[in-house]
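Holo prediction. Input below; ligand is 3-thiaglutaryl-CoA.
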Amino acid sequence: MSRDTAKVAVRPGDFLDIDHLLSDEERDIRDTVRAFVRDRVVPHVGEWFEAGTLPVELARELGALGLLGMHLEGYGCAGASATAYGLACMELEAGDSGVRSLVSVQGSLAMYAIWRWGSEEQKRHWLPRMAAGEVIGCFGLTEPDAGSDPASMRTRARRDGSDWILHGQKMWITNGSVADVAIVWARTDEGFRGFIVPKGAKGFTTQDIHGKLSLRASITSELLLDDVRLPADAMLPEATSLRGPLSCLNEARYGIVWGAAGAARACFEAALAYAKDRVAFGRPIAATQLQQSRLAHMALEVNRATLLALHLGRLKDAGRLAPEHVSLGKLGNVNAALDVARAARQVLGANGVTLEYPVIRHMSNLESVVTYEGTADVHALVVGGALTGIDAFR
Ligand code: TGC
Ligand code: FAD
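Structure of the complex:
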């Protein structure tokens, strides 16, 4: 039976009626996180960004909401669906990429590493307190000379009796200096392995990286490991190759697919409101064809990005999500969000370069987002490899 499409009203905030594709429970989770971001993040994030910090207390609040490791089962984690986790990431990043990063690094990187590759004792010891936000984790894979190519890492762990001695340096580590525990990946005679390194371990120090003009509402640090002696049970027993850390990246990259859609939406909403309000040449700039064209393209990208994220979420919940799908999603959605942010910034004129509006903050954050968790080039090469069957990395 055909329906009268003319009677369907379009809503600017959800042009394609994507809400309709969500369950009541998914909408409830989304709305809870959206309210948290509206009340606890949006009023303060400009100041945090300017000061180059993120209050660590936020971790406990995020834990109380069940957002830390929310898609993991057991050990105090919420056991939510991948789609629900994605919706949470979208709302968090609509506030700021730094807040989503806190949740990604905690849940998808540090906690996931223990959950997926750790022993039963390690899971029981760490995960409940990490889910509650009482213990903050970080994830050390990148080094000064090994970013896109972690296989070239120099950090090394060698056995000494039953202990391990860890030596090396990790760079660009989110939450490094505020973390209570670091998951550090190292080369060993038995392949690449992961280690749980508690703050305060002798020889383990951190140093914050200053002067970032992107992701300022997030702490980024260097980890220095000077012959750190660790007991045998600090090693994640099940991870024996780069598959260990790369599997964690899949989880965090999946959250970024959603998060980028959130950042894009926030920029679009700011631009739409501004264009309707701002008068130039005697009429709102929203009445001009140029700005309407910009807004239409932004709406298209926001809706397309959200639909792509939702599709990947449904695939993940059905157990059908491949790492290559995630690469396509991260590549597409972060680039789309950058395009939307840059267009929105222009709509805002001079006001677009201030922290009074969220746009330039998102725009500069997205320069980190397009770089971390695999650069756009890396993801293009992963997709290219899947399309052609040819590895073009080396
Ligand atoms: P390759 O030889 O292809 O694979 C080595 C082993 O890993 C397996 N594997 C994967 N497993 C799970 N998920 C994936 N996505 C996987 N990709 C590969 C593979 O099957 C193999 O397993 P096994 O058991 O046979 O040993 O590895 P490669 O050295 O050729 O590298 C491939 C490449 C370039 C795609 C990979 O190195 C890569 O992804 N590079 C980008 C590095 C990166 O994304 N770093 C991110 C650091 S963490 C971060 O940025 C946090 S930001 C904070 C925040 O998220 O907010
Ligand atoms: P490089 O690998 O040196 O790349 C430089 C350029 O070369 C890029 O354009 C890249 O795309 C390109 N390139 C590389 N290889 C190829 C190739 N084969 N073909 C064509 N082009 C290529 N890491 C962690 O481990 N944990 C964290 O918590 C973390 N948090 C971060 C937070 C922030 C704010 C930032 C900015 C980074 C963070 N990172 C973290 C590091 C991040 O993952 C790396 O920066 C990223 O993987 C890229 O590595 P690189 O910076 O060394 O760039």
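Residues 105, 139-142, 147-148, 172-174, 215, 220, 368, 371-372, 375, 377-378, 393 surround flavin-adenine dinucleotide (ligand 2) (CB under 6 Å). That is the main takeaway for now.
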